[in-house]
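Task: complex structure prediction.
Instruction: return structure tokens for all chains below.
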Amino acid sequence: MSDIITVKDLCLWYGGVQALKNININIPEHAVTALIGPSGCGKSTFLKTLDRMNDLVPGVKITGQVEYAGGDIFARGTDVNALRRDVGMVFQKPNPFPMSVYDNIAYGPRTHGVKGRARLDEIVERSLRDAAIWDEVKDRLRKNALGLSGGQQQRLCIARALAVEPRVLLMDEPTSALDPISTGKIEELAAQLKEKYTIIIVTHNMQQAVRISDYTAFFLLGELVEYGPTEEIFSRPTDKRTEDYITGRFG
Amino acid sequence: MQTGISRKRRAYILLMRALMGLSAAVTAALVLFLVVYVMAKGLPELSWTLLSTKPSYLTGSIGILPDILNTVYIILSTLVFVLPLGAGAAVYLTEYARNKKLVAVIEYAAETLSGIPSIIYGLVGMLFFCSFLDMQTSLLAGALTLVVMNLPTVLRTTQESLKTVPQSYREGAFGLGAGKWRVIRTVVLPGCVDGIVTGCILSVGRILGESAALLFTAGFAHAVHGFFEGLEHSGATLTVALYFYAKEQGQFGVAFAIAAILMALTLVIQLAAMLAGRWFKRRREQ
Amino acid sequence: MKKKAFESFVYGIFLILGLITVGCVLLITVYLILSGIPAIREIGLFKFLFGKTWASTAKTPQFGILPFILTSVYGTAGAMALGVPVGFLTAVYLAKAAPPRVKTVVSGAVSVLAGIPSVVYGLVGMLVLVPGIRRFFHVPDGASLLAAMVVLAVMILPSIVNVSITALEAVPKEYEDASLALGATPTETWFRVSVPAARSGIAAAVVLGVGRAIGEAMAVMMVSGNVANMPSLFQSVRFLTTAVASEMSYSSGLQRQALFSIALVLYLFILLINAALNFFLKRGKES
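Output:
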């Protein structure tokens, strides 16, 4: 399995505070990689660095390299919008636009210049099917998306991210605001989606990491402490700190 | 990775950015033009004689002292009424009112009042204060009309500042066994000061700029009076005088001199409102 | 017991203060209806509203206010056509795109615009705009509907800008993040996500502008020539507001009562606009 993202010596500062310290990691394609660690450890910050959403925070300074598709995403001349199209994101809190279900999904393709009713209809249906929500919303495509339940909204957001045909899907604690049943659906979905996409998911829930991920990276205080196949990390952690964390001694 | 934004997207983005920048520039340029033009035309016309005399048909000279005094009188008398009334209404709404429907009705009424054009205030003010209450055309009738006009402003600013008084203060005072009135006097009223000051600044601005509501209530006279005597008599404020000199007499020099004064006061009031807002915000954050 | 009586006394006072706004609205409404009805009765509602001629001081006076109604409607529409795009785009710029310092300066300028008295607008309009229109369009007199539209457009800018900014700034950041994460640029995000999300508030801003424009009297009086013509862009016209203002000081009898009726018509317009405003503000809060 080849690597889709290669991170070299990545450091990040918010103002004067260093939030990421010398991160080196290779993310394999078509797999689910989980980022775990106590809150404030830098896992979410790291995730947002991968599609350069951190650029929006004032006072951010970044050094090091993130290689994606053969180029450094911080290099001068990198097209951020094209990067974000390739590397989609699902947020912690479901955030559908206050528009119809259809317009939510069609927003991305339309932005990138897809026109024509038939073409859009097709994208909308495919994305909603891929996100396993088609059956629930097919009769209410024209209704406002804010009328959906929290779990449905989050799957809608996944569908919206899929509609622009990304290669990588970043998920920032996508189930933390959801009930257990909805959480189960999203986890199931993540497992299916890795056939077509590469998934990187931040989670504070270690059972979730075990259930859905192939690889796990453990972050602590801005450092990547340990990284490897999920099974190994959870059964034979090499670092004492990892062991303490996964056995629930802190965090 | 596909790179590059399509030419069509780029064109859209550039167009929207250009339109936004252009609009903001037009807005800013308008203000700059108005301020500079009025000042350039008006300031040279200002003189001590103009400011300190009254107009005389005998010598054909024009002075705006009466108009300045009338403006001051109207501002003072309006504030004397509108501040307690508006603040009191706000206290009722935030502290006493239990009936949600009644609150909605009162708030809707306040919104309606703030949407009524000043010419209508002028007309009803004339019918009610000048005719029905027999005040004649007088500064007092004008001031009372402006009281109604500015009521929603003071009500709203006070209400907003009362919302920032933490509920725990009230509970704390009640917990000490204080009666409702005592809580209001010691905890709530000090919390309205911000709102009353802001409402006061905004009202002064509106009164200063008002003309249509005063035409038929306060009238056009240009005589010099003391405060209480003045309230009983008809008199033009600066804005009404400006209208009168420009439209009825073609005395554009005088009109611009008044406009320059009004413009300067407008700037001062905006500045005061901004500074007050900042000051209150900082104090609240401490 | 004495304390209780005192408390209910205080309560009574505040209740009265609270009800004052309601009392004022009722008073204004009742006065306008009572004084506005007689002339309409005498002239006839249809003739009053749809009569094309206003000749209040003629030997056989005619009291048709259609010219005023149409002038107010056209004048307001024209002012909106000029002012809304500029105000809306300025608001998007200030709420989303402007660097902090530019934002402070331009917002300050906008509030100055709101504070300038209407007679000052009228004065500058009389001496700059009116001659300008005369020269530019080669018309005999620049005091016209067009001049009024331009002055009104400037006067409603601050309402539109400020209310729109409030609405745009209330758009949750999550919506904008989602759009950016899909590869949309900031500009596309503002216009395709933030603006639609703030549409109720922006609609309220427009309605507020309509109310301001239709209610303005003095500035319009100074630049529109004040002749009771049917509206036409380069002709002198009279608005509902200026119709009331211009004849009030010397009117009497039926003429005076007809002026009250005009005020009643204007008031009904305003009540309608207020209802619309309230509707949009409420919907904005809900979503």
